[in-house]
Design a protein that fits this description.
- The complex is a heterodimer of chains A (about 120) and B (about 220).
- Chain A has about 120 residues and is of the alpha+beta class.
- Chain A has one domain: 2-Layer Sandwich (hypothetical protein PF0899 fold).
- In chain A, strand 1, helix 2 and strand 2 form a beta-alpha-beta unit.
- In chain A, helix 1 packs across helix 2.
- The longest helix of chain A is centred in the N-terminal third of the chain and has 18 residues.
- Chain A starts with a helix and ends with a helix.
- Chain B has one domain: Rossmann fold (3-Layer(aba) Sandwich).
- With about 220 residues, chain B is α/β, with parallel strands linked by helices.
- Chain B is globular and about 70 Å long.
- Chain B starts with a strand and ends with a helix.
- The longest helix of chain B has 17 residues.
- The chains are: A alpha+beta (about 120), B alpha/beta (about 220).
- At the A-B interface, helix 1, strand 1 and strand 6 of A face strand 1, helix 1, helix 6 and helix 7 of B.
Chain lengths: ~120, ~220
């Protein structure tokens, strides 16, 4: 279980970027998670609700985009997503393959609101 | 009205930065660092106990042990002749870079050639958290089963060397070595592997030679 430190990082990164933008609140957070990254969405959401309380990110919706594993066959140049636990190339059965996608774990973007300034209100 | 702000920042960025600092600190001090990972019971501590008597004659070694609780492993490493530091993670399933940084503070780094970090026994989480080691080694033991590379691809993909321990048990269990190796090599063609038995000592020489060579190379660089 390491979702708590992970969630703390998500909060820290979100708040830092929101502050740079002088946001008054964060409404949505978009995360990109590769299939090989071991993270449980529900756990992150659980911790999020607890630790975001009292910050401008309180109540923000977490969106998880899951990226499937994609592999590249070094023998026949085929690009594919493995359909089961066997990662060998479905086209030529080669075992010389490299990982192209699946280890991602990043915060892609946040959606924020800004307080309407006095000037803009006029 | 909401506005979308691009961020694109690695969620474990803070940990990765500290890991880089750790690595620089180790490199500057001339210490080669191995991150030793495995499931519980694969033989991490036993392997260290086997390595220390041989390697201690040729180099100065420190061991940092990560465990959820207890100092059993650090005690065993100390008894085998190493300077040992125990980290209790208090439930956390892996070591992270900050924990290693604190443990490094307890060692006089300049006096060591090799640092072995024994990570928390776990095949999932340690793969995600860099600590700043120069090389990552996974110990698989044959009683765990030959399907583990297929079930824990994240771990098997990220390591530089693989120790296959408890080979003395091969006659007694169903472990299909070609199937196991295929799963390993599919994810990691560069991987070097060392089948051995900490019980009988068979195969240990090649592994110890590898550690010695890598340590010497790192110190020359």
């Amino acid at each position: 279980m390491h979702e708590l430190p992970v969630t703390e990082n998500i909060l820290e990164i979100s708040l830092r970027h929101a502050q740079e933008q002088q946001a008054s609140c964060i409404t949505d957070i978009h995360l990109v998670v590769g299939e090989l990254s071991s993270i449980v969405d529900d756990s992150v959401q659980f911790y999020w609700d607890l630790i975001s309380e009292g910050t401008i990110a309180q109540g923000a919706h977490l969106h998880f985009t899951r990226l499937p594993i994609t592999l590249h066959c070094l023998n026949c140049d085929h690009h594919y997503s493995p359909q089961n636990e066997d990662f060998a190339c479905p086209q030529c059965s080669s075992e010389r393959v490299e990982l192209e996608q699946g280890e991602e774990f990043y915060l892609d973007s946040i959606e924020i609101e800004r307080e309407t300034t006095h000037d803009e209100a006029r | 009205m909401t506005e979308r702000i691009p961020v694109v920042e690695n969620i474990l960025n803070a940990n990765d930065r500290i890991a880089l600092d750790n690595q620089k600190r180790l490199t500057d001090a001339g210490v080669f660092c191995i991150n030793l990972m495995a499931s519980p019971g694969a033989g991490k501590t036993s392997l260290i106990e086997r390595m220390l008597p041989v390697l201690s004659e040729r180099m100065s070694i420190a061991v940092i042990d990560g465990d959820v609780a207890s100092s059993i492993d650090a005690d065993r490493a100390a008894a085998a002749g190493a300077t040992a530091v125990q980290i209790n993670t208090g439930g956390q399933c892996h070591l992270d870079a900050t924990q290693l940084r604190h443990a490094l503070d307890e060692l006089e780094l300049g006096t060591f050639d090799l640092l072995i970090v024994e990570n928390v026994g776990n095949l999932i989480c340690p793969a995600s958290f860099k600590i700043g080691a120069h090389t990552s080694v996974l110990i698989a033991s044959v009683p765990e089963g030959d399907d583990k590379p297929y079930k824990y691809p994240g771990m098997y993909h990220g390591v530089d060397a693989l120790v296959i321990n408890k080979t003395d048990l091969l006659p007694y269990i169903d472990f299909d070595m070609p199937y196991f190796r295929r799963g390993v090599e599919l994810l990691n063609q560069e991987l070097v592997s060392f089948p051995l038995s900490c019980k009988t000592g068979e195969g240990l020489d090649a592994w110890i030679r590898w550690v010695e060579e890598r340590t010497a190379q790192a110190q020359k660089a």
